[in-house]
Amino acid sequence: MKNSVQKGFTLIELMIVIAIIGVLAAVAVPAYQDYIAKAQVATSLAEIQSAKNQIETKINEGVTAAITLSGSSAATGTQNVGIKDVTERCSAVTVSVLTTGAAGVLCKMKGSNAIKDKYVQYLRAADTTTAGGVITGAWSCKTDADAKHTPKGCDSSTTPPTNP
């Protein structure tokens, strides 16, 4: 009598492997979607960084009248802050600079459903004068995206941020 040696896998063993892969995929896909959304919020924030720097320059040069820019005037107007009205991650950009030094750059985000039509903003507090001189306003970051999609250092809120 011949001894037979089993070669290959049984159908049950293959089904178990497929079930394990299915469970892992079911857990991984939502986590990956959250990772993508968080990266899109961070990219939107990076795209408005240049306007933040331009605004700081304008404030240092002296703002005699409030500047409010939206659409193409943010990139081409006389008070140009060097940012396009539409970027790869922002469907609309609005810029506001007050004579007090308060300022804001607001980006309406585009991307995955988790962040689409949500806002991310750089906001500058007004300058304050003390006995020691002028204290320059500090920049902060705000968004109405979910807390799990909010970049480190940004405040998350359920209401959309607005420019000053």
Terminus-to-terminus distance: 91 Å
Name the structural class.
Answer: alpha+beta
Beta strands, count = 8
Strand order of the largest sheet: 1-2-3-4-7-8
State which percent range the strand residues make up: 15-25%
Whole-number radius of gyration? 25 Å
The number of helical runs is 3
Q: What does this entry look like structurally?
A:
- The strands form 2 sheets. A 6-stranded mixed β-sheet has the order 1-2-3-4-7-8, covered by helices on one side.
- A hairpin with a 2-residue loop joins strand 5 and strand 6 (133-135).
- The termini are far apart.
- The protein has 164 residues and is of the alpha+beta class.
- It is built from 3 helices and 8 strands; from the N terminus they run ααβαβββββββ.
- The chain is elongated.
Q: How is this fold's topology laid out?
A:
Blueprint: H1 11-47, H2 49-61, E1 67-70, H3 73-76, E2 90-97, E3 103-109, E4 119-124, E5 128-130, E6 133-135, E7 139-143, E8 154-156
Parallel strand pairs: 7-8
Antiparallel strand pairs: 1-2, 2-3, 3-4, 4-7, 5-6
